[in-house]
Amino acid sequence: MKLTREEVREVAYLSRIEMTDEELDRMTGQLGAILDYADMLNELDLEGVEPTSHVIPMKNVMREDVVKESCGVEKALMNAPDRFGDFFRVPKVIDEGEGH
Amino acid sequence: MKYEPVIGIEVHAQLKTDSKLFCGCSTGFAAAPNHHVCPVCLGLPGTLPVLNRKAIEYVVRTCIALECEVSPASRFARKNYYYPDLPKAYQISQYELPIGRNGKLTVRAGGREKTIRIHRIHLEEDAGKLVHDASGGSCVDYNRTGIPLMEIVTEADVRSSEEAVAYLTSLRSILQYIGVCGANMEKGEMRCEPNISVRPVGAEEFGTKTEMKNLNSFRAVRLGVDFEIERQIDAIENGERIVQETRRWDEATQTTQTMRSKERAHDYRYFPDPDLVPVEVSASVVELIRAKAPELPEPRRVRFISQYGLPEYDAEVLTGSKAMADFFERAASLHNDPKAVSNWIMTELMGCLNESGKTIDECAVTAEDLTALLELMGKGVISARMGKDVFKDMFASGRPPAEIIKEKGLEQMNDETAISDAVEKVIADNPGPAADFRAGKKQAAGFLVGQVMRLTGGKANPKIVGRIIEDKLLSE
Q1: Nearest residue to B6 (alpha-carbon basis) of B228, B262, B276
Q2: Please, are residues B224 and B215 in contact by the beta-carbon 8 Å criterion?
Q3: Residue B127: which pLDDT band, with cuts at 50, 70 and 90?
Q4: Based on the domain organization, do B102 and B223 belong to the same domain?
Q5: Of the ranges A34-38, B181-185, B442-446, which one carries the lowest mean pLDDT score?
Q6: Which of A53, A72, A88 minimises the CB distance to B140?
Q7: What CATH class is the domain A5-43?
Q8: What ipTM score was computed for the predicted complex, to two decimals?
Q9: Contact A65 B52 (CB under 8 A)
Q10: Strands A62-63 and B51-52
């Protein structure tokens, strides 16, 4: 399975990364090489082997439903590029994407 | 051609936990933006989410109530998209291996029973809130980010807006009964997104579906679904193609409008979240949660009929919400006439609630106050007619009935001598009707009783008045 330039362009778009034609070519090669490497797994007989979703054999790590002090609005906004009162301010969003 | 709507419903229910799904921030309503946030729900680097045990318990409880299979193992996935309401640029959700699958809910719509299959129930975190029109930019509040949401998805089994509303009403009631969600649609605690398509009656294949958002009440669901069904049928009849898209219900124009087109399919690139380990809910844990589960609306309805001898209709109305059913049972335990309690709740109490737009939780009248009023009427201290006025006052002021009756001097007049005096005066003043009554016109009694009631300011006991009038006129 060969990675195409179009697929890389699409993934870049989904990740909001702008790429020049030259970068697209380079990424197609590099990403393709990584995928080809991972493709070696397909040469193994994996019949009956569950996909690994986590590398550490742990389960049910949970906390009790107890409220902890929040960090405070000033700390929360400390690194914000822009603020409006207690809000984070971002460039105007037009697409109504809320609630995907 | 005749068309048939095919509808599936997605519901997002906000779970009633104290803290968020993956951090200890409060889920309480915060007046000020960004006051319930921390490095975890703000998605800052170097932080790790830790799952809230209660959220899992609530989802399992819901699975049991909706007869779902609980997956012995489930896991969380990242749903990736860029939008400022999502600080991490992914939402922690579930994709493969949701907690619950293959459930069902039977509802009554249009006088018959209908079973709606539940496809899946999963757990995810809520996104933040954007305020678009302040200050020239977009303003973001992350208080809501990370609040646990349970997503309940039906199969495409719903065939009308009536069935959709019946399903949602029943689901809301169940979520309230089992105490996992406030389920107030106006407050956004329960959000519903129907998928709607239409197809010619008898067709096997589904039509192209649209998804609808911004339905904030049962009324909006009914109107919105009906509008969308009509719109799609009209479009097909006019030879147009239905576009797969998300449409927004607009309350002002009572129409749906395109919100975003799904022509370019959303690619969320789900993958297992490496920050969270799998969740295993064993059969014994499910049994433990089942043993603690509160009584559901349907068994309670049946019990109201057998235990209190209530008619089907009363039992159905009273068990429609847990709070109302609790109110009834509390009152019925204090007053030895369940049907009278039911009548007063269903007419006077619900009448006042509807008029004021309040819910039973906001009602100032307690079950104790209501039964005290019934006792006072039973003893003849006030008439049933007066009782209704006293109840309105109780509802408005929250004061106990005895206090209101005393203050307003509403005690019923049971003193036979005083009533007798009033009757004599009325007979003297109204010789015509008195003569009619003597002549055998029984209807004239009503007029005379009315006059005595007027003379006594409505306080005379009407039963005693009637008896004395009869005694006086017929014994002469």
Answers
A1: B228
A2: yes
A3: very high
A4: yes
A5: B442-446
A6: A88
A7: mainly alpha
A8: 0.87
A9: yes
A10: parallel
